[in-house]
Amino acid sequence: MRALVRWHLFWPCLTLALLIALNAVVNPGFLAFEWRDGHLYGNLVDILNRAAPLALVATGMTLVIAARGLDISVGAVVAISAAVAAVMIGGSLSLGDAEAVSRFPMWLAILAALAIALACGLWNGALVVGVGMQPIIATLILMVAGRGVAQLVTGGQIITIYYPPYAYLGNGFLAGLPFAAVLAAAVIALTQLLLSRTPLGLYVRAIGINPVAARIAGIRAKPITLALYGFCGLLAGVAGLIVSSNVRSADANNAGQLLELDAILAVTLGGTALTGGRFSLVGTALGALIIQTLTTTIYSLGVPPEVNLVFKAALIFIVMLLQSPEFRAGIVRLARQPGA
Amino acid sequence: MSAPLLAARGITHVYTGKPALDGVDFTVRAGEVHALMGQNGAGKSTLIKVLTGVESPRAGEMALGGSRIVPTSTLHAQQLGISTVYQEVNLCPNLSVAENIFAGRQPMKPWPRGGGIDWRTLNSRALGLLRGLDVDIDVRRELGSYPVAIQQMVAIARAIDISARVLILDEPTSSLDSEEVERLFAALRRLRSQGLGIVFVTHFLDQVYAISDRITVLRNGKLVGEWPVEDLDHAALIAAMVGRTPEAPPVACGATGDAPAAPGTPVLSARGLARRGSVNGVNLDVRRGEILGVAGLLGSGRTEVARLLFGLDRADAGSVAVQGQEVVLHDPAQAIAHGLGFCPEERKTEGVVEDLSIRDNIVLTLQARAGLWRRLPAAHVREITDRLAKLLDIRAPDLDGTIGTLSGGNQQKCMIARALATQPCLLILDEPTRGIDVAGKAEIMNQLVALAREGLAIVFISAEIEELLRVSTRITVMRDRVQAGTLAGDCGEEAVYAMIAAAPAPVSP
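Above: the input entities. Below: the structure tokens describing the complete assembly.
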């Protein structure tokens, strides 16, 4: 039992379980699954699907934070990636059977969007590593300017994507499961594998814990950090594709809005230290699920829209208190006092 | 002889059980520059803290201009007439020079003229003060836009304007180049002629003789003595600082002297290695099986030599050759690739990676050398760490535990193990025995000698001459950021002290 409580993913798991239990109490049908047309449906499946973009963005964010960085431009990169893909695929509304027409081949549009997202990440990394800017300032530049770039790409309009195959990314199913969720899970698993099978995970931790000592020990921190920012941008690009596919449009102003804050929150909930060093990709995935479950909870509780944000803030506050070792220690002390 | 301006008698202070000052007397006369000298931990800083009211002493009393004072804070001390300028300038770089000088006591316009700060008076008075120190700058510009030397002058201007009786300068010259030092000294001479009592703390011996009138030496919290500068030559000053007592038997030199260094190409040789603001003209040759000791006081450039050799700092001039091949060292990773190993001075900030396991810490450099993609097999890691832990006698309950759980001495051994894991041809150790108890020190030194016997070349930097003499084949001496010379293995303690103290001698190879 003691070992279980000490397990670094114990509190994120418990939080998620409590939230799901809350939903199950309020809405008895919440845990139900349904197999229809070879696809799995249900509230939990829906949460997995909707959490995918956040989980992807937060995965990149975890690694950047683990190496003592921060990337607050991911929301803007989501918008840029969505805009590039939307403009390149485009398509027009036709009556009757929608004809599968795109301006460029879909694979080319996806590649271009991802390449630009990667470039955005590398740009951030270059500012931090090469110029020596504070990460929050360096990425603030793209956070603000990125929305402008996205607007430039879309010509200031919301671009609707009529090309049907593109909808698969955000709405399709693979082996009965939502494709986006499968993709996110695969990316997280592959990243985890890469970090544990190569020494990269060790280097990232060493850089995060003590960058000076890491350099003296011969770790080339600069290229590694640059690559982490690039990876973070790339994953934000993938998230942008999913988001735009999901709603079949690209909105330069609102796509990925405040996603960077949710991502940082997911990283924190998953037990990664914001000071660098200690990190957990699985924890981050749980964090993303917690946040998405929270949002779903608010809808299923029927919270009026005008108090929606306040309610969410209150729930997050409680979740953060639950995750704080200091707070828990205080509770334990309080609980013990009357007996003593 | 003038009457004392500031007199402290029998100052005693204790930090959590450890006496920091023990009945110290200290006297500053008007119109003198008084050097306060001592090694690290001698009690200089504590004495300054007592004089400026940061610490209140357990015993003793102070008098300023004949009347008894009890400063309770730096502000109070300033009001009494004692100001301090620290090594790092304690001003606001984002305010203007003039604002910094008058911060908290700005001249105000009278209400009839609208109130508010009287900028014209403020700026003109600031300009006047700085001109008095022979500094002519735009006082309206941000302080941060000026070099440290100017910032220091501004700090001095502020200090003397607040209280012009006693000025304490705590290592003011450590980040200045020689021209800037000369300028500072000119200002100090001017202030001295105005009757100020100036206390000057430094590690640079030459500067003591260039500016001081009187020297007080502390050692281990006790007063060693006070001398007019002409009565205490370099060697005597160093002897007073390091506390060499005549009856102590000299330590035998060259413990490895019986195993003569292998002839042929040196493992490492440096020629004319220099870096602006760091060290100048360093020439070294280290051969297989040789331990080259590097001696020198704090700030003499001993650590800087190690940083240049390991590529932590880039050299402006000179060359380094490893096994006869000239190499470029711009990054520690390059130095490691050429077969150098390094154990840094600051174990906590530059060495250990706190949250990683002991094994990961030990293999970190070896792993880093293997590149980005190839992870050392776990069995290999276990074998290497087990072997090194045994070799260096690292006492850990569990090598998979985090390194933070180990004692300082064992962490230090892990750092040596990390360097050894790459099987370097040359090992650079910067103060490997610092902060370690006596038994641990002896153990580490014995291991160094054993490693050298097996053919490793070692550069061993230490502040403790006795340690250097015990293990070194040869000792090179750094003094005021220049290599003062190299002594052969069978020199005595006296010779090392003499070279640390002496005027620059021609460098012997």
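Note for the figure: The longest strand of chain A covers residues 33-36.
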